[in-house]
Amino acid sequence: MILFSIMVKCPYSWIGKYTLAVCPVSSPVLLNKLNTILQTMARPVSDMSKFREVFSKANHIVVLTGAGVSAESGVPTFRGAGGFWRKWQAQDLATPEAFRSNPSLVWEFYHYRREVMASKSPNPAHIAIAQCEKRLKEQGRKVVVITQNIDELHKAAGSEDILELHGNLFTTRCTKCGDVRKNKDSPICPALAGKGEPNPDVQEAKIPVDQLPTCKQGSCRGLLRPHVVWFGEGLDPEVLSRAHHELSLCDLCLVVGTSSVVYPAAMFAPQVAARGVPVAEFNIEETPATNSFGFMFKGPAGQNLPAALAPDEKK
Questions:
Q1: What count of Cα atoms within 13 Å lies in the side-chain half-sphere of residue 234?
Q2: Which residues contribute to the annotated binding site for substrate?
Q3: DSSP letters of 153-164?
Q4: What distance lies between CA 296 and its chain's CA centroid?
């Protein structure tokens, strides 16, 4: 019999990234069993009481949210199977190239997205996060939302400390003078009234450029675009810098409804976990980053988050 030592990834990342396991191994069969045990140990846990214990001690919490949390409010994501607007997915239209070649079509797409939000409301996940922020603020603790979503549902739920990585659906930017401002006009311009129907049989509106949304800064009249980050564009350096700052300070990170495949946001939580900070994932399915985290609560965030972030009845 020999002693077999190996660095084992600890399932509780706040204890440390790895722990040293020294085990007696006398045969290949036992070695295979050991490998199976180690693989099991590397899996995140779904222990709500253990999470609640960690949560009760956290003073600086970062909540990373993605399209999944908005999808639970019925917001179309235009991703994956069936995720089409007419015959296009988001990555086909949310690009600078698409806007240059066909601004009318891109504005139809975003007009539809703006208008559909009138019928959408924050779900229990949004509300749980907002209520948690308010409650912990009174205790001198901090909750920051870093979201990839552009729909303002976190704000509608009552969250205040929000970083919008990908911009905002209700903010425009002038392609001529660069003016950025809020715009909740409905429709955003007369020519888009009644346009944007997602049915694939609908014909393009082909609106002339001079009838599309235009800048109201002085006499500019430049063509407006949605102030969002499109595929192929970089994130706002100031927003990204603050996101990194909050992540560097957090002592607990929640990953809610994100696929962990859109960069650079996909690296945020794994980098936090690598520092030994506890990370909990709330998602309907596992992601490429799941095994980097200490906790994974599978299912709708609207079901799991309210319980995870509920007030401590003992206090």
A1: 6
A2: 110, 113
A3: HHHHHT--SEEE
A4: 16
* pLDDT computed for residue 83 by the predictor: 79
pLDDT, tens only, 150-206: 999 999 999 999 999 999 999 999 999 999 999 999 999 999 999 999 999 999 999
Tens digits of residue pLDDT in 226-277: 999 999 999 999 999 999 999 999 999 999 999 887 788 889 999 999 999 9
150, 167 Cβ separation under 8 angstroms: yes
Peptide bond into 187 cis (omega under 30): yes
Q: Strand, coil or helix: what is 241?
A: helix
**283: part of which helix (H) or strand (E)?**
strand 279-283
The angle at the Cα of 249, spanning 243 to 251, to the nearest 5 degrees, equals: 115
Residue matched to tokens 């996101």: 243
Distance CA 131, CA 113 (A): 27
Residue 145 near residue 129 (C-beta atoms within 8 A): yes
Q: Which of 60, 111, 154, 166 is catalytic?
A: 166
The amino acid occupying position 141 is R
Model pLDDT, residue 16: 36
The answer to whether residue 166 is catalytic is: yes
Band (215; pLDDT cuts 50, 70, 90): very high
- Binding site feature residues: 66-85, 110, 113, 148-151, 174, 177, 215, 220, 257-259, 283-285, 301
Alpha carbons 293 and 168: distance in angstroms, whole number: 29
- Cα torsion 272, 274, 276, 281: sign: positive
